[in-house]
Amino acid sequence: MATQIVMDQTGDTRHEFDPENAEALARAEQRFRELTGAGFTAAYRTGPGEVTRIKSFDPTAHETLFYPRLVGG
Known about the structure:
It is built from 1 helix and 5 strands. It has 73 residues and is an alpha+beta fold. The chain has a 5-stranded mixed sheet with strand order 2-1-5-3-4, with helices on one face. A hairpin with a 2-residue loop joins β1 and β2 (11-17).
């Protein structure tokens, strides 16, 4: 199972999907495009305490985190 974690003002929402299932994979890719299109940053864990920002859907990523743009004040 792979997981997409979406952070927002209400906390986080987790979307699990089976990357071997073509329909689930298509939904996950669509979610990726919608979130990044709405301004979310996408990143995946590369090691303990390390993340890498990604700009395109990676079907091999075990866990992808989406977080909104940070706004300074």
